[in-house]
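I would love for you to help me understand the pair of lines that follows before we discuss the fold together.
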Amino acid sequence: MADTTEASQSLSRDEAAEALESLANELRGDAEMTVLAGNKSVALTPRDTVEYEIEVSEREPMLGDKRESISIDLHWKAEE
């Protein structure tokens, strides 16, 4: 069964950095980590080694504003 929780919000650069630092601190722990997604807390148990992917995009469409983004993906095989 797949269960996905998504949340998005507008943050200042400092607030976004604080959210990333909080996530990094949870990842550094030895056991379960808690991830906040909107008003929901999700408990995860990452392995000692995780897959890390980063994607950086710069888009300048014919119409509209230039957009830049960073996507970071961490994944691991869940323990049985």
Summary: Residues 13-75 form one domain.
